[in-house]
Amino acid sequence: MISPKLFPSSIRQIYHKQEMESVFGEPPPSSISGSIDNQSMPQDLKLSTAAMDGKESFAGLTHIGNKGEAQMVDVSLKDISKRVAIARGKVILGRKVFDLVSANQMGK
Fold first, then answer.
1. Alpha helices in 25-94 (DSSP H)
2. Position 83 pLDDT exceeds 70
3. How far is CA 2 from CA 65, 67, 69, in A?
4. Residue 13 is assigned to a structural domain of this protein
5. Considering the domain boundaries, does residue 14 fall inside one?
6. How far apart are CA 2 and CA 14, in angstroms?
7. How does residue 91 score in pLDDT terms, banded at 50, 70 and 90?
8. Which residues of 7-19 are buried (b: 16+ CB within 10 A; e: fewer)?
């Protein structure tokens, strides 16, 4: 199970040069060098993620099982509320995998 205290730093670590080289067989392209921080993140999101840092109420992830698998949770008793979620992602592929995906030669 991922330790909640390690979660923010573990996300940043996937961009580390040595890990990228071990996964993709080549160093990361220089074009992603600035993407590991939140400099392109809107200000309100920076504030909300900063507010979560260090809060002890973040005891665990409710939708993750003991082995790290995703789990459904019962929300039928929760009050109705308005929420907004914004997600952003970046997929970084090595040249070989990129070429396979581009040529539609990669299985699911």
1. 43-52
2. yes
3. 10, 9, 11
4. yes
5. yes
6. 14
7. confident
8. eeeeeeeebeeee
Tell whether 1 is covered by a domain.
no
> What distance in Å separates the CA atoms of residue 5 and residue 59, rounded to the nearest whole number?
9
Q: How confident is the model at residue 53 (pLDDT cuts 50, 70, 90)?
A: low
Contact 106, 100 (CB under 8 A): yes
- Which residues form the domain of 40? 7-72
Q: Is 24 exposed, middle or buried (0-12, 13-18, 19+ CB in 10 A)?
A: middle
For the stretch 24-40, pLDDT in tens is: 677 666 654 444 444 55
52 domain-assigned: yes
The 10 Å Cβ neighbour count of residue 66 is: 7
Q: How many domains does the chain have?
A: 1
Task: Indicate the length of the chain as a whole number.
Answer: 108
Backbone dihedral angles phi then psi of residue 17, each to the nearest 5 degrees: -55, -45
